[in-house]
């Protein structure tokens, strides 16, 4: 059979209006169901005819999933279906959690932010160009990683955390939410469970065919941002070749509490360098409790790159990671 | 060992046979392989049109008119506009939300029409470039600005840019050049007439301010 | 500049309202009753032979109407392509086409077709194919010598040097010329720079893909197509379909970009016509972006070596160029030859040599892309010029001036030992006006300025390219409604030239533009012989042709007036839609009256008798229009001073972040020698749009192949990266200046600019990056984050400087 792209195959479309209704459909169709949020990742797969679900469950009509609410006692609860545009523009996000507003504001393009959701941005699949093109790699159920061969083109692949697969997580908002210590509320017909952002993402060592802990009958319902880091000193930077549309070559997000020039506490997360967004505990430990100087910041950068294993074409990412982390501690304009 | 041989070895370890040798063997013996089995996952399944949970016949609000139209579950808004409603002003440049030629307004917000299902816009107001001109032929300030600035070149990107500019001047009729550029940055112009497009946007904002 | 009524003035072109209301129809906007949709079956391999095709399952599907295979196409000769093939030579090459009632059915049908392929050896890097025992992209050879396909291997060159990224210059080549004695020139130089250079291949990627729709009526084929050149696509399209030109109507009113990829349409435009013929129904072939990425043409990459000798005063004594061109799988591109021609003009070396060859590869087919070879020349040589300027202690702009062409300067490949010459070159003047307008010295003073981790770089580059053609025909009729109908066979790419050049006719008639109607875009509308809307020829060629038609119409108006009102034609003049007595302007005839008089007189006045030197195409068109009014029709027989070339000098300012490798293009300014300015705003569009395409070549656009499989992995815009609005200066308007000096050998003195503009952008940016990084010369494009950080960090390079498609 020949291969053709760019024409979505037929599927059944469901447009539930409640979460329970949506969960019922996921239970009914199991692996044959496809959850449609903003659709920007989904339509790519469908148009390429690489993924062929029988049933597409469009969450756009489930209003309860898109609310952004301030929680009593501090913090925010953001519905997974909240559009990135709403996240960027929300006054509480802007005033208290500017890190998330900044990260969400650098996603892809304005129209994509108008349509794409926070949940979709977090749960999106990797952009490894072999895998996305339908090559039969480990992640697709095959027995090879095409991006990690002597001739492989892996400029945009990972330098840390590889396990057979060397693809990276492409989300811009994920490192911000890891740095903010957010929790993910996951719903299934069995109930609701909560997973810290750091544990929401799965590396290929755990499951090579998934990016997150979401099971086929799970929905990411909401993202809870605790009040812990509200109004902290934030830093976000996304390195990319083009200023629109491009996924990050590497990104960094940090939240710091600095008093009288001393870094009292800090959380640093990066993305684009590993199969999951990474929280950099060693870098945090290197600077926590110390006077903020350029030298101290540089030590965080050095700590960030411990254990890197660059591929043939992405050695530059080591320097990029080191410098972005250094800058994230140093602060200032990205 | 050459690169290819090292890779052969690695793959042989992984999967018990060498794909490179396989391909080489095929080349040497003139054997045939199916077109689909080169590197791609052979997962194609042709399914007959499945009955969907959504209605086929839907009502859309397009440019202020209610239009009844028969759509497939997987049909995109850009396709419906162009092929079912005769609104060919909306262009498809990439069909992958990375050029912006298909930009239309949905409830006033710019969206890529290629990457929305038509079923997703039921009950929402869709506006396309055909809906900008007044009944008496008066151009929208954005359209007039294009004409007055001799904006755009091949203009295949123009409908998408124009719709995005309509949203821009509606939201911020006094943008700086930089603000306009950021707002309009989700549209690609391959003639790269960006400098003049920004002149158009600022002129359109000026016309809007003047009313 | 002369005092013109219309020329040099801003106005809005007649197509803008249609475009801005969505009424303008591009190829995919046409519909026909019962229209089928075509889909193509692409090759999944870079090179293979089709062993068998089983379409039975597809044909059994309801709604599948016809299938077209390569066997059914009119044959073409190697190394040209047919549009469908049984021996695909690049990934994505169409093997067959299916037409069905809708696109979903057509796509499903493609998936049900079984194609058995025999994989064949493939080469994606030209150097791979030159390596002893290396694979060839084609079964009939890896290069072309003296118009014959042949195979060349570099058996005796230093391959270890190539693996290190150094190009040897002793491999066998197919093309060579020399002016003066290059070895002697290098020997006498005070400074010799000897650099291995690389320029990437890059797709054209017009926003409108090469979609086409066709139907047949009464034995005639109607083809709606996206093409740069309406009239000049008609013949190739008819030949491709296998019919006589009179049996084809070709419609292309708007073209959504071409950049050289749709000069005379495209080979696959025959497919909907042949499918429609077979099915007896209209067929729309909608080409997707991914298909466009493969079948949509690309610029040939170059791998080479350039040696330049300088005297201590900056004058270039010798230029020695050696190129291996990535030729793609079909045809034959001349980019590497053009690169030498343009370099010979821009830098006027006292001695010059070109050696090179084009090697076939299993990558997308190549064609001319905006400044074919010219862009590559500037991208490769401008940074070397800057390096020389630094080493010689000369201002880089001054080094441009020192070596600049002037007047009817010599250029290019010699014939019988003699080089040709250009009609005019005002490069030193362009440098002077750019230096003062843009305050070049203040720009230079910002070089090296630090802002935290960011450092400012300043660059300047000269670019030149073809800018004219001649010998075309102009055709207009002044009709009894008083309007002037100007027929144009060039296409409408949006450069404005289809309208701008028509203004030359109205200038001759000294009549308001709103009295003109431009007829274009449909071969049934009687179009005259025209240049291709390519090679930046239109502005030059058709201001001349339309001026000729306008002057012819004017002569006829004067004669008619004299005949009707007495006196001699010399007693009359034409302006404002009238012909009138010079000494008594109130006595005269309006155009409407004159048109009726012309019809009464017949003969040459209304087109029943035509000049003998017209192209047969124009004769056919004019014959069909005869009797409709006063006809102005003439061949462009104006004198020529040589090859028509325009020039531009780009000035760029960048900021490079030494910690992230990010390049921000802060400002770009351009000064140009373009002859008489016809339309300031369309000129500005070309200067800046062209420059941005140059930035794209310098900073980001490329594709990437996995050479083991011969497959491309960067099929998407987000992975091959055409520039966005935020990648170019957008906080302040980009500036430009034209000195408006007419080309002395053309009646209106206008020259084209579209292609020249591109190299100025690329070269200036590459020089600015190098300037920011100190001695940060890469000799390779595009320069991206990874390369900059690798350089700054002193990391081992990830790939050889000569590696293609990385």
Task: Return the CATH class of the domain at 12-61 in chain A.
Answer: Alpha Beta
Q: What value does the Rg of chain A take, in angstroms?
A: 20 Å
Total count of helical runs of at least 4 residues of chain A? 13
Q: Can you give the helix content of chain C as a percent range?
A: 25-40%
Q: Structural class, from secondary structure content of chain A?
A: alpha+beta
CATH architecture designation of the domain at 12-61 in chain A: 2-Layer Sandwich
Oligomer: heterotrimer
Structure, explained:
The complex is a heterotrimer of chains A (334), B (211) and C (806). Chain A is α+β, with helices and mostly antiparallel strands. Chain A contains 13 helices and 12 strands. In chain A, helix 5 runs antiparallel to helix 9 (173-179), helix 11 (281-287) runs antiparallel to helix 12 and helix 12 (294-304) runs antiparallel to helix 13. Chain A is globular, with a radius of gyration of 20 Å. Chain B contains 7 helices and 6 strands; from the N terminus they run ααβββαβββαααα. Chain B is an alpha+beta fold. The model of chain B is unreliable at 1-29 and 44-51 (pLDDT under 50). The radius of gyration of chain B is 24 Å and the shape is globular. Among the domains of chain B are: 57-131, Beta-grasp domain (Ubiquitin-like (UB roll), Roll), CATH 3.10.20; 141-210, [2Fe-2S]-binding domain (DNA polymerase, domain 1, Orthogonal Bundle). The N and C termini of chain B lie far apart (74 Å). A 5-stranded mixed β-sheet of chain B has the order 3-2-6-4-5, with helices on both faces. Chain C has 23 helices and 34 strands. Chain C has 3 domains: 33-120 and 205-296, Aldehyde oxidase/xanthine dehydrogenase, a/b hammerhead (Aldehyde Oxidoreductase, domain 3, Alpha-Beta Complex), CATH 3.90.1170.50; 299-359 and 366-408 and 421-468 and 642-792, 2-Layer Sandwich (Aldehyde Oxidoreductase, domain 4); 471-635, Aldehyde oxidase/xanthine dehydrogenase, molybdopterin binding domain (Aldehyde Oxidoreductase, domain 4). By secondary structure, chain C is α+β, with helices and mostly antiparallel strands. Strand 1 (33-34) of chain B pairs antiparallel with strand 5 of chain C.
